[in-house]
Amino acid sequence: MNFIFNSILPPAKTAVAHQTDTLFWFVHLSGLFITAVLIGIVAYFVFKYKRKSEDEVTPVIKNSVKLEVTWTLIPLALVFIVFAWGYKIYMIEETPPDDAYEIKVTGQQWLWRFDYKNGATSTKELHVPAGRPVNLIMNSKDVIHSFYVPDFRIKKDVVPGRRTQLWFNAPDTGSSVIFCAEYCGASHSDMLGTVVVQSEEDFQNWLANNKGGAAKPEGMEPAEWGKQLTQDNACQTCHSTDGTKMTGPSWKGVYGSKVSLSDGSTVTADEDYIKESILKPNEKVVQGFDPVMTSYEGQLNDEQIDAIIEYLKTLK
Ligand code: CUA
Questions:
Q1: Is the pLDDT at 152 greater than 90, yes or no?
Q2: What one-character DSSP code corresponds to residue 261?
Q3: Global pTM value
Q4: Domains and CATH numbers, the chain
Q5: 175 contacts: CB under 8 Å, gap ≥ 6
Q6: Which of 155, 222, 267, 286 allows an S-S link to 310, with CB 3.0 to 4.6 Å?
Q7: Ligand 1 centroid – CA 195 distance (Å)
Q8: Which one has a higher pLDDT value, 118 or 250?
Q9: CA atoms 270, 276, 277, 279: torsion sign
Q10: Which atom in ligand 1 lies closest to the alpha carbon of residue 181?
Q11: d(CA 11, CA 172)
């Protein structure tokens, strides 16, 4: 039986997920049971009351109060049980424990960004300690997104101009997929991420190593750092490096090339143009593309943008 249960739902990796699943199975199995009983009774009556001769007349049937009360009260009781049960789990999900570890989550087209207490940041990968409640304080930079981790059975809209929160406590180390569950534009389906649940020690190490993650790692070439920054910011969701046309123009050979803009003019893709494209992406839109890129103002500093330009120069 457990085998069937486990193959239908994703693994349940939090205590709340197990409670949600129990309610899920109660709703579905009781529904299935009632359906089977009703179909059974109907099938039985079809044969039992089949018309046997030409002159057989159906007797007049009066209403039965007993029967009507029964088939009203049983479903009503079920509805109340499901409501109370669901409300209980809902309240658990809506009430983060006071000692929860807070992480700021920002949704933007099309990546997830995470800010931690000590100044560490990450994109796409959310690092959390195992066995400790984590409270996500969520906001959006542009449109409505929805933060969804199926393994934890938690989902909440991420709305511009409004703070929403979501908490969980994952006891075991491992990783789970984060989806965006609200259609948010061309690359909505690529707005994926991973929750990495780590032991307390690994998590503290990770935090320490990523503290103020803005500086170039020692000994790394600027172009190599630039490449890493583009990966951290999920630029490849929209920009290919091999000439393929995606949501945004490909980066292959873009540096130094002549670019046709949507207003009919032409510019040379030099340092200034690329920097402007990162900070004010919709000032100059390349012909054949929609003005959908979000600004990276305040997210990438000059040093980082220079490194990205160095990286673009290598994509010939
Ligand atoms: Cu963000 Cu869909």
A1: yes
A2: B
A3: 0.72
A4: 2-52+61-94 (1.10.287.90), 101-209 (2.60.40.420), 222-313 (1.10.760.10)
A5: 194, 195, 196, 197
A6: 222
A7: 17
A8: 250
A9: positive
A10: 2
A11: 12
